[in-house]
């Protein structure tokens, strides 16, 4: 309705300085993102991915991530270094979402380490005193190992 009335779909919200497309991505609203893009709204893929990759990745957010990856398949390769950071610091929701949409789980860093090698090695401040941390690391290890076996087939 706003688009039909000539509203500027790229005008940032004055209080947050975020464009409507960014806000829709942040909330994982795939249909709204598609609608806004269909009406001519534009924002860089990097900005959209950044908005999308919050701490919690629900099914809607993962669906939007898949849409963005389908639109720009080269993006996943550009995120390989970021995957090591997520893995080491314990941002497992983000890492798992990247794996679900096809990220390379067999990637090695510049030191020849795998994701499993760095898993949980430098927990973020939010994880360092969490009593659940060891269980979270074990769960992510299982997710990674399963993805590695699946990708080898």
Give an account of the 3D structure:
The protein is an all-alpha fold. The protein has two domains: 1-72, Ankyrin repeat-containing domain (Serine Threonine Protein Phosphatase 5, Tetratricopeptide repeat, Alpha Horseshoe); 79-153, Serine Threonine Protein Phosphatase 5, Tetratricopeptide repeat, CATH 1.25.40. The chain has ten helices and no strands. The radius of gyration is 17 Å and the shape is globular.
How big a fraction of the residues is strand? under 5%
Count of helical stretches: 10
Shape designation: globular
| CATH class group of the largest domain | Mainly Alpha
Provide the number of structural domains. 2
Sketch the topology as an H/E string, one letter per element.
HHHHHHHHHH
Q: Mean pLDDT, nearest integer? A: 81
- The unreliable regions are none
Radius of gyration: 17 Å
Instruction: Give the end-to-end Cα distance, rounded to a whole number of Å.
Output: 48 Å
């Amino acid at each position: 309705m706003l688009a039909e009335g000539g509203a500027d779909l790229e005008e940032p919200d004055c209080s947050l300085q975020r464009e409507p497309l960014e806000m829709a991505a942040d909330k994982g609203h795939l249909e709204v993102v598609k609608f806004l893009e269909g009406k001519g709204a534009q924002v860089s893929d990097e900005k959209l991915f950044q908005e999308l990759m919050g701490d919690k990745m629900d099914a809607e957010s993962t669906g939007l991530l898949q849409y963005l990856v389908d639109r720009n398949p080269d993006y996943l390769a550009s995120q390989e270094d970021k995957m090591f950071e997520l893995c080491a610091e314990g941002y497992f929701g983000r890492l798992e979402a990247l794996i679900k949409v096809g990220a390379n789980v067999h990637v090695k860093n510049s030191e020849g380490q795998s994701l499993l090698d760095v898993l949980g090695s430098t927990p973020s401040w939010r994880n360092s005193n969490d009593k659940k941390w060891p269980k979270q690391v074990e769960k992510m290890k299982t997710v990674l190992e399963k993805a590695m076996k699946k990708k080898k087939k």
